[in-house]
Every structure is written in structure tokens, then in C-alpha cells.
Amino acid sequence: MYDFISQPNPAVMSTVASDGRPVSVQIVYLAEDAGHILLSIASGNSRGGRLQHLREDPRMSLTVLKNDDWTEAVTVLGTAVEFFDDKDLQIIDAMTTHYFGAPYAIRNPRTAVRVRIDEWTEHSNAMFRINKAGEGETVG
After folding, report:
1. Measuring CA to CA, which residue among 59, 130, 134, 64 is closest to residue 99?
2. Fewer C-beta neighbours within 10 Å, C or N terminus of the chain?
């Protein structure tokens, strides 16, 4: 799972709005280690209010699609466990360099979010694997 999410693959993050509806948006991220991912979100009003959503309800999902074959994917269920200033935009620059080969062009304040990976599901064509606390179950 870590090797897959460490690649610069497209991803969609879903959060829960204050009224309970799901909100999804495309996003870049970094796999920090096997147990955490990092996000960098505009500190002001951002697309879909995702920073506010995570502060109100830290549960989120991130679906990472394989760049050249969207039938292969990993969905991470996680919890936002830390919010901090993305000083000097180092985190967003690392993300956009990882994905696009260059630092982020817009130099506005951002908030970094550390997300703990609680479980993940691996998707490959018709098969998927659900993993919790290091255990897996294959379902076809």
C-alpha cells in the first residue's frame, strides 16, 4: 500500500460537511510514512471548505487511482490528527514538485494537515482487500 500511495498518482479526498453531506475534491498529497499522509490546504476559504470540514469532523477518505489504470486504486480512511502552518510553503512545494516537477506557483498561506491512516482498501479490477490494524481480507 505504501509503495502505491507514494507515487504521484491522482487522488480524490472526501470530507464530511457540517450538515453531514459528503464533499469530494481532487487533491495532491504526500505519503509521509506507512501510517500517515500530509495535506496542504489553503488557509482561507478553500474549495469546498475542506479545511473547515476536517477541523469540525477529522474523518476523511482519500482514493488514489493508478495513473495509467484507474481500475487499480487504494482508498485510505483516515483521521486528521494535526494541523500546523505550512511555513514557507515547504510542504505544498514538496507535493507539487513530486507531482509536477516544480514548486507551487500561488504563494498564499496554507495549513498542513497530518492524517493518520486508520485503514485502507486495495482495489484491483474486481478484487479488493480491506486492511485494519495490519490484517487483510480479500473479497471478490
Report:
1. 64
2. C
What does each C-alpha distance from 61 to 19, 21, 93, 99, 134 come to in angstroms? 17, 14, 23, 20, 18
The CATH number that applies at residue 118 is: 2.30.110.10
Helix, strand, coil percent values for the chain (each to nearest 5): 20, 50, 30
Summarize pLDDT for 20-47 with one digit per residue, the tens.
Answer: 999 999 999 999 988 999 999 988 755 5
Our count of domains for the chain comes to 1
**What is residue 24's predicted lDDT score, i.e. its pLDDT?**
94
Domain that holds residue 23: 2-139
The string of pLDDT tens digits covering residues 107-119 is 999 999 999 999 9
The one-letter amino acid at 139: V
How buried is 103 (Cβ within 10 angstroms: 0-12 exposed, 13-18 middle, 19+ buried)? middle
Does residue 129 contact residue 137 with C-beta atoms inside 8 Å?
yes
